[in-house]
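ok posting inputs for the copper (II) ion job
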Amino acid sequence: MKQLIISTLLALTASAWAQAPVNVDVKDAWVRATVAQQKATGAFMQLTAKADARVVDVKSPIAGVVQIHEMAMEKDVMRMRELRACLPLPAGKAVELKPGGYHVMLMDLKGQVKAGDVVPLTLVLEGKDRKRSTLEVKATARPLGGAATAPAAASAEDHSQHKH
Ligand SMILES: [Cu+2]
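and the output
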């Protein structure tokens, strides 16, 4: 009996470690609303990690495919492409995912994203010790052309023209 209790305790401790959260603050999470039939959109937020960490994956129930994208110059044209490595989150430094920069690309959308919808995102984070944990983020959909926060950048990135 004692044996059983001890092994149960060990199992509990082990799972607690495995889920030790990577401490990351999320601010201003939002998704750009879509028009009917639109198959892709972007999600944006500001991430600040307490200790060095990285985003290794993002998931969302509203999209069949989720990728982390970056904007990059290709032959004098700004294009977006999938980030091959993980997105690094240096300790204490706010990393911005915003139109015209890093963003979470939601593709193969299962339906229209309307302004005001709350879109769940799951970030898979990895700490320096390589342990992974997940962070649930609720991103609010902002209207198309909701450029109030980033007027210049908003038009630079047209997700309807998204090509891979
Ligand atoms: Cu993209």
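notes: The domain at 25-146 is CATH 2.60.40.1890 (Immunoglobulin-like). The helical segments are 2-18, 151-154.
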